[in-house]
Structures are given as structure tokens and as C-alpha cells.
Amino acid sequence: MDNKADFIQVPYQQMYDTFLQALLNHGFIPEKAAQCASIFAINSAEGIYTHGVNRFPRFISYIRSGYIKADQAPSRIGGFGAIEQWNGNLGPGPLNAIDASDHAMALASSHGIGCIALSNTNHWMRGGYYGWHTARKGFIFIGWTNTLANMPAWGAVDSKVGNNPLVIAVPYQDEAIVLDTAMSQYSYGALDQYQSKGEQLPVPGGYDEAGNLTKDAGKILGSRRVLPIGYWKGAGLSLLLDILATILSGGLSTHEISKKEAEHALSQVYIAIDIKKLGHFPAIANSLEQIIQDYHTSQPAEPGKSIRYPGEYIRQIREKNIESGIPVSRKVWDEILVSVNR
After folding, report:
1. The pTM is what?
2. Which CATH number applies to 4-184+228-278+316-340: 3.40.50.920, 3.40.50.1240, 3.40.50.1010, 3.30.1370.60?
3. Low-confidence residues in the chain, pLDDT < 70
4. What keywords appear on the UniProt entry (predicted)?
């Protein structure tokens, strides 16, 4: 079990430089290494450690195993109108995701809406990154990915659906409102983090081996029975996200990915909407302000607690971590330093 002594504060620039060198050592060209290192470092600075610094050692191990092809990039297969299909060619997931997001925005600039369906790609790490990336450029973003089977269907005990993260992002002021949610109550990365700290989950996140709902992350990891968000609703939404990603991309479904030795060759969808083309665009900012102002007048169930919209505290977390250093487990950081020297 980790404690405070097991964590260190790593300056943002040092973390970025370390990621960069590790990627250069593993076959990335400088431009792609810099872009990928930046994504991992920003995810970490913004507090998404489970899909930033904590995930980096596995990312490197997948490159070594050949699941991730450092020298590959997406290629267009075909399309019609505002929809295009692309093959990720097993390239690095974060770079494929940025490429797909940019192409979706380019289509939206021409058609009002753009959809890139991406097959044969890899884990995108933090899906919200691409929501922020797109929304800051003035576009609505809707995107999702399938995964291997890691969540039981409602009423089942064996995993047949993925926790298939969904991202919805809307431009707001100079930042964005960004929902980034897996179809499980907690991602496996979050469960790992709670277990390592010896902390209970705020609400039940799954079942133990005996079939009892529990807040104990370790027991949920042991049973592999994570709880779908909204119970049967989350399980159903997960199934439909997998079906849509498979249909639109022509790629692999969750049950096909699950037959592989490791999670790769995923299917993803990236949708961008150019709201500047809407006739009432000048009024949208005021409408959003009114919605958020009303939302913030919610009465907290616990005195002193604030009600926040999705992504509201990202800026504060980023500024704090860049000023004070990013908290990292010594064990994880040592693994990363090893990858720099190989």
C-alpha cells in the first residue's frame, strides 16, 4: 500500500523531457515524440494520472511488444459526405486520436458536421484530451472508443461488454465543458489508484466475489465485476457504443478485441460540429452563461460543497501541479526512468 512517502513531486518540464526521451529511444521521430510526450504530460498535470504518468510504463511496454507501432500513422480508407473511415495502422493511440479529431474538424468546417470512424487503433489514453482540443477550437466534440470486454452486462457475472469511454465537449468561455466518462462507475485505473492508497470508493463501484456491492477497490479488482453507470442503462449504452463504433469504422468489436493477447486494434468514433454555422451562434455564449449560472445555484447536499460542471476544476488542478510539481508514485517514476535508459 502506498503512502505519502511513496510519492514525489516531479516538475512538469522534467516529466515532459523524460517522456520525450523515452519515446525517442523507442522509435518515435522528434515531432511525433514531442506531441505524444505533451499529451501524457498535460494529462498528468491536469490530474488524470491514471491515463497520464501512471499509464506511460504500459504504453512503452506495448511498443516493445509490437502492439503499438511507433512509426505508423492513420490512412484514409474511404468515405462519403461528412463521414470518413480511417485505418489507424496500430499507430500510437494518442497521436491517432489527435489526427482523427483534426480531420473531423476539417470536415465540419466544410459540412457543418464531420465524423471520422477509426479502426485498428490503440488506447487513446485520456479521451477528454481530445474534447478539450476540439472545443477550444470552437467545435462541439462527441467521441467514443470500444475496449476489450472488462464489464459484465447487467445481471451477468462474466464480462461481455467494455467500459467504452464516451466524451462530449462544448466550447465555453476560453475553456470548455467536458464530460469524459467510462461506462463503468469507476475506470480500472481509478480502482488501481484507490487500492494503492488504501482508500474506500466514495460510492459502491462494483461487486466482491460473493456478489455484494462494495466500496473496496481491491475486492472489485479481484472479482472483475465493475458496476455499470446507471446499472442496466450504462450496460446498454456500452453495448450500443461498441455496435456503432464497429459499424461506422468497419473495425473490431469488443468481443473480437477480447480474443487478442492484449488490448489493441480498437475502434473509435470522432464527431465535430461547427457551431459557428448555426444561425443563432451569436446568442449561444449568453445561453451557456445562463445555464451554468443556474446550475451553480444548486443547493449542495453537504454544507460547504460546491456544485461543479464537468471539467470545471481542470484549470486549477493544472496550475497547481505546474507550480508545485506533479505527484507521482516513486515506483511508477522509477519504471519510467528505466524506459529512458533502454
Report:
1. 0.96
2. 3.30.1370.60
3. 1-5
4. Oxidoreductase
